[in-house]
Amino acid sequence: MISFKQFITEARLAPLYHGTSWNNGRNIIAEGFFRTTTSHNSFMLLRTPLAHQSEVTKIYDSKTNLPFPKDNKTTKSIYGLSTSRSYRFSKTWCKRMLDLSEDDIVIFELDQQKLTQKYQIKPISFNIGRYIYKGEDLNEYEEFIVSSNPIPLKYVTKIYSPFPVTIKKELGTNRGIKCEFLR
Questions:
Q1: CB 30 within 8 A of CB 103
Q2: Closest by alpha carbon to 145, among 39, 11, 8?
Q3: Which of 82, 64, 156, 90 has the alpha carbon at shortest distance from 122?
Q4: Strands, E, within 62-111: which ranges?
Q5: Rounded distance, CA 103 to CA 182, Å?
Q6: pTM metric for this prediction
Q7: Largest CA distance in the chain
């Protein structure tokens, strides 16, 4: 059995995943960085951009089980990039929240260990709250890379895509990023 300290250390060595659409993935590659336009307020929940924001009917505080107001202007926003420790969750999030098919999903794998040398990474939504989306209770969990500046592709170790050959051509040969089929 491993100690709690070992567990935390191993968790920080795991890769992070950022799922997005085919078009957004190609834009990220062309620009050479991730835009950090996602914002969270101090509840770390309320202002996450969603494809179907109007369909999110309620956002709950899991401690009180009461709905949060949709627009809480009294809290400070932080900006960054949403990621997950789970490849599967990133893929599921793209399907459910962005309404993407398997042929339109690109998932970036990032090196968490390198990221922590420059960026603060905050866990989001662990027992803080939940989304009710299209009548379905989505337990969101996320690792939020805090940055108001773009995050360069140098932290990407692998890209999963339905079209890895195309992605590899667009990356060029000098980036050293592996490309694999979406699984």
A1: no
A2: 39
A3: 82
A4: 66-67, 78-83, 105-110
A5: 9
A6: 0.73
A7: 52
